[in-house]
Design a protein that fits this description.
heme binding, mainly alpha
Amino acid sequence: MEKVTSLYDRIGQRSGLIKLLNHFYADVRQHKVIGPIFESKVDNWPPHIEKIADFWSGLTGGPRNYSGGMPWKHMSLGIGPEHFEAWLGLWQRNCINQLDEPEASELVQIALQIAVRLKTILAQHDQPI
């Protein structure tokens, strides 16, 4: 029987995630729509990247070290459809540029699921979406 390799392993484990996230957030920080939101909330990028790597690690079959309550951190940001669209577009571009198929597609699908979940939670709490 062939062993199934996790997405986490196929993207290069933590070092692969960190590489992807560094490229992604470099683009995010320069983006006219979502850049200002991140810049107003993140003072120190390396620890933020590490925390986000913990989040993505658990989602991709790696160690589950994230305990940050991701949806709740987004409640007061005033994010709307244009923010989700920008975030997803940058994520897709970075996944395609940094990873092979099907890993890029798998990560994009996870991001789409995150966006749906976050939009639902924000709507349930009367936050703009």
